[in-house]
Amino acid sequence: MKKYIISFLALTILLILSSCGSEQPSEVKNIPEKTEPPIVKENIEPVQSLTDTKEGVETTITNIRTDGTNMALDVTFSNHVYDITSMDVIGLSSLNGVSPTDYIIGDTQMGGHHVEAEIRFPAEAKGKLVLGLNEEITFTFEL
Fold first, then answer.
1. Which region, left, alpha or beta, applies to residue 25 given φ > 0 means left and ψ of -120 to 50 means alpha?
2. Which one, of 134, 35, 34, 40, lies nearest residue 85 by Cα?
3. How far, in Å, CA of 77 to CA of 107, rounded?
4. Cα–Cα dist 65/72, whole Å
5. 68: left (phi over 0), alpha (psi -120 to 50) or beta
6. 13 close to 20: Cβ distance less than 8 angstroms
7. Which of 94, 93, 63 is nearest to 76 (CA)?
8. Calpha distance 133→119 (Å, rounded)
9. CA separation for the pair 127, 143 (Å, rounded)
10. Which of 16, 45, 88, 112 is an S-S bond match for 83, by CB 3.0 to 4.6 Å?
11. Global pTM value
12. What's the pLDDT at 123?
């Protein structure tokens, strides 16, 4: 009886050991992440924050960057009435009459009342910047 128990235990251990580690792990494939167009990085010049307030919405341009062909402005919107994320900023904004190419909402808090965003234009420019939220709330800055 002892022989059968020892044989059974030896066979069980042998089966367990033979099944462990015999299979090579499958190769892990690097799947590229979805990428967006690169954010322009070089500051045009140090920018003093440009701020304006209308209808309880404070709008601040905190930075202007360029890559030589495109321009990006970092903008914050802060209020306690409107959901800025639902407004047509890209459709109602312009720089010297040129529409933005992109509007990227980065950080939003409290249901869209405090928003950090980036608005991009197709060229480096100075002049009249219009940031529109709706027909009644439009901000104009001179860059």
1. beta
2. 134
3. 11
4. 5
5. left
6. no
7. 63
8. 13
9. 5
10. 112
11. 0.66
12. 79
Which residue, chain included where needed, has tokens 């209308």? 54
- Token readout for 31 is 């799947």
Task: Please name which of 50, 142, 128 lies closest in space to residue 96, comparing C-alpha atoms.
Answer: 128
The sign one gets for the Cα dihedral 39, 75, 108, 102 is: negative
Element (H, E) at 61: strand 57-66
**Residue 22, both tokens:** 């015999």
Q: What is the structure's pLDDT at 9?
A: 61
Instruction: Report CA torsion sign: 61, 105, 131, 38.
Output: positive
Q: Which of 142, 105, 98 is nearest to 123 (CA)?
A: 98
Tens digit of each residue's pLDDT (9 = 90 or more) over 51-102: 999 999 999 999 998 888 889 999 999 999 999 999 999 999 999 999 999 9
